[in-house]
Amino acid sequence: MKQFMRYVLLAIVLLAPVAASEVYNKTKNSIVRISYKAKETKQPSMGRIPGLQFFFEGPDGQRMQPSATHMTEQFGTGVVVSDKGHILTNHHVIEKYEASEGDLNITIGETTYTATVVGSDAQLDIAVLKVAGAKDLKPITWGDAKKVNVGDDIYSFGNSYNHGIRFAKGIVSSEVGYIPRSAQAPYALEALPVSFAYDDGDSGGGIFDALGNLIGLNFGGVRLDNQMSGGIAYGIPAYMIQQAVNDLITHGQIKRVKLGISIQPVNERLAETLKMDTPKGVLISEAKQDSHAYKAGLREGDVIVGYNGAEVKHDQHLLSLVRQSKVGDTLKLKVLRETKELTIEMKAPEGVGDDVTISSPGQLSSFTQAGADVAGLSLASITPEVRKRFNLKSDTKGVIITEFAKQPYHKKVNIQPGDIIVSIDQTTIEKVEDVKKQIENARKAGKKSVLLFVARHASRFFEAFEIAAADKS
User: Fold this and answer.
1) What are residue 33's DSSP bridge partners?
2) Degrees, nearest 5: CA angle 177-122-205
């Protein structure tokens, strides 16, 4: 009976709501303010000055002001990650810092120290700084964002507008998602969505669970009408960056796993053409012959559906899984190749650049040229003239799409004039007759679609091409 009561009391303690003040008191000494001066150049502005038709005159009597350089205040937040003075923050917080322009200031409590940059990484948007002379530092305790659920309480700190550290309480607002690449975020990031107002200066602040463990790092918020973030913010999950932080502290750079492949999503048309029950995994659009992935057995056209026991959901998910791997780990990839399931093992190789490249076909200028009509496509062999016009390498093989003989259907697929068909259903194409042969073979076999492997500028990707739909269009 006594043993039972001990368990009951322990359960009450563990399940009892945690006061926000307890989390604050446990973590407040692990949070720092970051500030520095950065040089910025103001672009020339133009304004109408009546009666003044000279001196920096622009079009229509507008006055052009010369560009001006001035110093601006940059600020953010950081968390203490070691008792030796290492501070974790975002790369974008310190990316404008130049040692020649002043000190990088770290304020801990009421004391300000000078810091140096140990290492920084734009892909994960993290940076590690170091302060010398600081005593009694209290490093954070790492937590796991995978163990929190939607609706769980979270707590965050931020140096809002550089007016001092602010403590906020919120919740996990949805499942971990992905921030796509954009001009503002050039690298795809896995994101932990949380609900609290995100302000300028909050980047680099810690996100803590109810036990006071670090489960994420603030890196952005969604602004509404250029005001406050409206209660929507994002954090980089701790499991994505913990090993990377150790690498930056030890090596000054991240020991990044690089497979040497390009991938693309598997949509419904591709899944049907590949004879898959449902769209899943990612399709390898390029496996460089000198890459570790190619040497291990991965090939263009393979569909990666599993990575170290995890089901691969989409391209961003695979990128996240690779980033969580360590150089030297044994990787087990489950692959579909022509409906057969294979398991390919390889040692996680180290490299530089993108971990995995996500294929993103670029746009082409209009191009038309007479060609043979095959399944509604006008095709032509690659002549010296075509090589010169599209700056193609001398060893480029395939046939070029010159125009669409039948427009409606082709507007629905990701092919366009100027694209080069490299292969059809994994069979290499070198001339127009090869295309005719593969299309005819597919018709005889009762196939509704064929798998085109297409080159567009530096990108290579697969596209499902429905024969019957093309014929009827």
Assistant:
1) 77, 107
2) 65
Global pTM?
0.77
**Would you state the torsion angle of the CA atoms of residues 23, 24, 28, 29, taken in this order, to the nearest 10 degrees?**
-60
pLDDT at position 365 over 70: no
What pLDDT is recorded for position 168? 93
The domains of the chain, with CATH numbers, are 19-39+69-254 (2.40.10.120), 256-358 (2.30.42.10), 372-472 (2.30.42.10)
Host H or E run for residue 439: helix 432-444
What digits encode the pLDDT tens for the residues 42-74?
655 544 444 333 333 444 445 555 566 778 999
DSSP secondary structure of 246-276: HHHHHHSS--EE---EEEEE--HHHHHHTT-
Q: How many CA atoms lie within 13 Å of 125's alpha carbon, on the beta-carbon side? A: 26
**142 vs 208: CA distance, rounded Å:** 9
CA angle, corner 185, sides to 182 and 189, nearest 5? Answer: 110
